[in-house]
Amino acid sequence: MGHVKHVFRNPVIRVCITGRVPYFPRSYLKIVECFSKLIEPCNREEDTNDFHIERWMRVFTIFTDKINDKKRTYCVIGAGTAGLCAARHALQAGGEVTVFEMANQLGGTWVFNEEVDKNEYGIDVHSSMYKGLKTNLPKEIMGYPDFPIPEQESSYIPAEDMLKFFKYFSDFFGITECIKFSHYVIRVKPTKDEKQWEVIVRDCPNDEFKTYYFDYVLVCNGHYHTPKLPNYPGLNIYKGKQMHSHDYRCNDPFVGETVLVIGAGPSGMDLAYEISKKAERVTLSHHLKDKPKTTFPDNVTLKNDVARLTETGVVFTDGTSQDFSVICYSTGYKYTFPFLSCDCGIVVEDNYVQKLYKHCINIRYPTMAFIGLPYYVCAAQMMDLQARFCIKFFSGEKELPSQEEMEVDTNTEMEERWRRGMKKRQAHMMGPQEDRYYDDLAKTAGVDPIKPVIKKLHKLCAFRFSEDLVNFRKDIFRIVDDETYVKVN
User: What is the pLDDT of residues 344-376, one digit of tens each?
Assistant: First the structure.
């Protein structure tokens, strides 16, 4: 019986005996290999005793029971940057994954769509992509941690190249076959026994409504799709054209126009520059403490905040006024989840999604998670980290803290934010705190952290657009190792 003791020292076999088998296909392959070694001596006549056969049958029964167990099922809402990495990690954890994507292709916000307002199925157009857009961060930090964007000379690449990358990523990991395109999620709610999620979906091409049930839901619908508009006095009396940057597609319609762009974030500054190529004049209104250092074309001027609108233009907070034929609001977006039922345990107040553990996991129902809420971050890298964090718990490999412990953790973090003077709408803003957030996720779940070189390069590039909007995309970087990058021009 010496060989029996030897085989049962194998940790994989011990896992089978205790009934704790991880949901990882590689583990099953290892177990099969161990069984082969276990079965071999049973075929020798001198070793076929009742004790050995009984032990072998016990392990075999537990193993086959585990193999026949229903896989954990995951619903991923959205096939953009967040949804693709969430699906990838759920699949690699042995899950059965279904991705619902409202568009007819993957890529989320990187998909260009000429349409504005509504699509062919009467659904709000999701993407804010416009012609000629290039990334505002270098490709070296826009891929996933272990799956970088393929090498090319430029660091700042066209949106079309980003879309090709995501399609390649999806095909490589077998995600594409899990995606139901042109499927619009109508409602997500917990089942009566609160053990699963009921998901009602509209199959748009066939105009059919279907109901699915899942163990876990990963909400990855992005937050650049529902415009947030300021409530200035006089909005209703202004007679010119008003639009949000969400509906900007190209600068052709602005020939000869006098344009006010409100908001000096990356999109606002980009649009002011692009529109200035066709418009008679452009004014960029902002409330930055220090005005952007970049040099704009001669027909672009900077002004402070808008106080109110008039019939023909605006009055600024400094008391000056100016007439405009077009006002373009680049004032951000709302966090909206219209498909979540009111009993999902999620409330959104002024873009504060609550209550979430580590800005991810629904504390009331910890089988639901949100990927991609934090902003002023290195997006794809953070989303992948969040996905790994959540799947570590959802797969059963690691146990979540109790709801009470998660609430205490969340309340402690938010109270610290309020003490630093942050507003409710900044609840998910990282910025200077991003490294601490990344490290906390990695440490809590026991997953690989974001590489130091990624953090360093992101800090360098995060505000380059405000320093030199016209030329910053000419910068070329290369990653040397996990700690080092070089600027090659």
Answer: 999 999 999 999 999 999 999 999 999 999 999
